[in-house]
């Protein structure tokens, strides 16, 4: 089931508004809606729906879902898209041809690789896309900003630790199958075929020291975050005050949260995670704007706190 086949600013929300201040399905079901089946290559090889691969069978993704998956990932000219199990190369070629991205397709079957290279030449995108024969569990795809795939649930789970270790903000798009307890950030269905999007979250679990500065002076605090994938909760300690945070939201390397400070002032924090440091701005309910810096105390804790 291979063929499916600039860092982005992730949309975010805030209560005070900054702007104002599955199991494997049967083959006939999987094949429903397929479009533009791959042609034969120069050696006469033509892929067959259901043909066996290393870990999966080959079933093409409809062109309409290919387009939607790349739209969900907000693919653009600054992206490097890696398609794991690229089959006849449909997704990688579409990323290059229609979204002007660089792309790499990784496929175990050498005949499919040859077919993909032929299709890329016919589409006029050999300067932007390449195809490699290889094992998706051995290839290095850490430089990708977008990863696409159409694999079985067990394979998704096997890849999950490697995907979670990628650069925060990396977008992962999957046709048909999910990532277990790592819930998607977005989903779409085209021709009754689902696509799912995940944004790799930054590791923020643990303790941080916070210094915020604004018109009313400087505030010191200690933050404690708990994290399970992109879901985060937190508490803040300011002097004798120990309080929960409100509206904590992590999207890639962007972290938003709200808290009531020791003066009874509700403040919003809008930051970007950079390793062991978070920097950003603050906005108080009275309109006062400031800045903040938080530094990690102790080791980086795991993102993946739920095991499937």
Please give a handful of descriptors for the protein shown:
308 residues, alpha+beta, Rossmann fold, Lipocalin, 2 domains, 9-stranded antiparallel sheet, 7-stranded mixed sheet, 16 strands, disordered N terminus
What do you see in this structure?
- The protein is of the alpha+beta class.
- It has two domains: 18-199, Vaccinia Virus protein VP39 (Rossmann fold); 206-297, Lipocalin.
- It has five helices and 16 strands.
- The strands form two sheets. A nine-stranded antiparallel sheet has the order 11-10-9-8-16-15-14-13-12, with no helix packed on it. The protein has a seven-stranded mixed sheet with strand order 3-2-1-4-5-7-6, covered by helices on one side.
- Helix 2 packs across helix 3 (90-99).
- The longest helix has 14 residues, at 110-123.
- It is elongated and about 75 Å long.
- The model is unreliable at 3-35 (pLDDT under 50).
Instruction: Tell me, rounded to a whole number, the average pLDDT.
Output: 85
Task: Give helix % range.
Answer: 10-25%
Radius of gyration: 22 Å
* Total of domains: 2
Sheet-strand content, in percent, reads 35-45%
Characterize this entry briefly:
This protein is of the alpha+beta class and 308 residues long. The chain is built from five helices and 16 strands.
Topology:
Elements: H1 27-31, H2 63-72, E1 80-84, H3 90-99, E2 102-107, H4 110-123, E3 129-133, E4 146-149, H5 153-164, E5 171-175, E6 186-190, E7 193-199, E8 206-214, E9 217-228, E10 231-238, E11 241-244, E12 246-251, E13 254-260, E14 266-274, E15 277-284, E16 289-297
Parallel strand pairs: 1-2, 1-4, 2-3, 4-5
Antiparallel strand pairs: 5-7, 6-7, 8-9, 8-16, 9-10, 10-11, 12-13, 13-14, 14-15, 15-16
Helix pairs in contact: 2-3
């Amino acid at each position: 089931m291979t063929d499916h086949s600039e860092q982005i600013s992730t949309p975010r929300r805030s209560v005070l508004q900054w702007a104002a201040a599955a199991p494997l399905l049967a083959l006939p079901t999987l094949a429903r809606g397929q479009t533009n089946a791959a042609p034969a290559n120069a050696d006469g090889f033509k892929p067959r729906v259901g043909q066996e691969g290393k870990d999966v069978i080959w079933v093409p993704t409809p062109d309409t879902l290919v387009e939607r998956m790349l739209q969900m990932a907000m693919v653009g000219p600054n992206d490097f898209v890696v398609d794991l199990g690229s089959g006849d190369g449909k997704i990688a070629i579409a990323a290059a041809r229609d979204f002007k991205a660089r792309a790499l397709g990784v496929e175990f079957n050498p005949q499919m690789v040859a077919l993909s290279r032929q299709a890329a030449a016919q589409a006029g995108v050999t300067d932007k896309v390449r195809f490699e024969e290889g094992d998706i569990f051995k290839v290095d795809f850490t430089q990708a900003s977008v990863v696409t795939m159409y694999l079985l649930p067990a394979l998704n789970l096997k890849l999950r630790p490697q995907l979670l270790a990628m650069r925060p903000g990396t977008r992962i798009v999957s046709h048909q199958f999910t990532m277990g307890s790592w819930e998607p950030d977005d989903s779409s269905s085209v021709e009754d075929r689902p696509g799912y999007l995940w944004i790799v979250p930054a590791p923020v679990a643990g303790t941080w020291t916070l210094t915020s500065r604004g018109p009313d002076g400087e505030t010191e605090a200690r933050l404690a975050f708990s994290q399970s994938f992109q879901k985060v909760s937190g508490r803040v300690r300011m002097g004798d005050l120990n309080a929960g945070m409100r509206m904590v939201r992590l999207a890639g390397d962007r972290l938003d949260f709200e808290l009531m400070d020791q003066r009874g002032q509700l403040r919003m924090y809008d930051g970007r995670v950079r390793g062991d440091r978070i920097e950003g701005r603050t906005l108080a309910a009275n309109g006062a704007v400031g800045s903040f810096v938080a530094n990690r105390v102790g080791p980086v804790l795991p993102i993946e706190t739920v095991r499937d």
